[in-house]
Design goal:
By secondary structure, the protein is mainly α. It is 85% helix and 0% strand. The chain is built from eight helices and no strands. The two termini are 51 Å apart. The relative contact order is 0.06.
Length: 255
């Protein structure tokens, strides 16, 4: 089979790009996620997780397109919408961080202020200079304590939010299980009532037989559908693994 020269040139370009990508990704792949996260700020960690999720989605799209699969109604479209929403949030956070860096600082350099006062008022006594130095040290300690308390309060607030979210999820699960139990009790009661009521005529017996046949057909169709899904998952393990990895990455971004 003769391959056109243009196609060969494009394949060589793709191979060179993949080799370059592997070279740049090697340091990232050799390090553990915890080591990388420890060296990054929270905003940088979010950007890294977003870039990783986008890379996974892009590679999965390429994989499906090479298999000549239609992606218009594929579940990957929902993941693309989620990534677009996260990207907008990250861009907003980056813009806010850049704006905060450009604003002039409002904090006072206490040590510099004390030196300025010493130079402006040279006739201070030893007791006054000592009192001034003591006051400066106390103000520095108070400022440091305030900075340490800010992250602690933020962390406590985040813990309370997570606790409230977990409580809400537990309440929803409890409500769901209670509703399922009520539905099951209702079905059991209905079945018992049907068994207790005698057949009034041959026509009612025919209706009951038709209803039972419909239920059996529904169960058979559901069983066939589950079997087809199992066969599809068995035929395409790479797709299932990619979807699972993508869900894990997006869960890290949510966290």
């Amino acid at each position: 089979m003769d391959v056109p020269e243009d196609t060969l040139e494009q394949l060589r370009t793709v191979k060179a790009a993949l080799d370059d990508l592997e070279e740049h990704m090697q340091p990232f792949l050799e390090a553990s996620p915890k080591d990388i996260a420890a060296q990054l700020t929270p905003l940088e960690r979010v950007k890294v997780n977003l870039a990783l999720a986008q890379s996974v989605v892009t590679l999965y799209q390429l994989h499906r397109r090479l298999d000549a699969a239609a992606l218009d109604k594929h579940p990957i479209q929902k993941e693309l919408e989620r990534l677009a929403a996260y990207e907008r949030k990250v861009k907003k956070a980056v813009a806010a961080d850049d704006l905060a860096r450009l604003r002039p600082g409002t904090s006072l350099n206490i040590a510099a202020a004390n030196r300025f006062i010493d130079a402006a008022i040279p006739d201070l006594s030893a007791e006054q200079k000592q009192a001034l130095r003591t006051l400066g040290k106390q103000q520095q300690a108070d400022a440091a304590a305030g900075q340490d308390a800010a992250p602690a309060s933020a962390a406590a607030g985040g813990g309370r939010k997570r606790q409230r979210a977990e409580q809400q999820q537990q309440q929803q699960r409890d409500a769901g299980s209670a509703s399922e139990e009520e539905v099951a009790d209702g079905v059991d009661a209905k079945q018992q009532l049907q068994h207790q009521q005698p057949s009034s005529s041959d026509g009612s017996g025919d209706e009951k037989a038709a209803s039972e046949k419909q239920e059996a057909d529904k169960r058979a169709r559901k069983q066939q559908k589950r079997q087809r899904q199992k066969q599809q998952r068995a035929q395409k393990p790479a797709d299932a693994a990619a979807q699972e990895f993508l869900q894990e990455v997006l869960a890290d971004i949510d966290a």
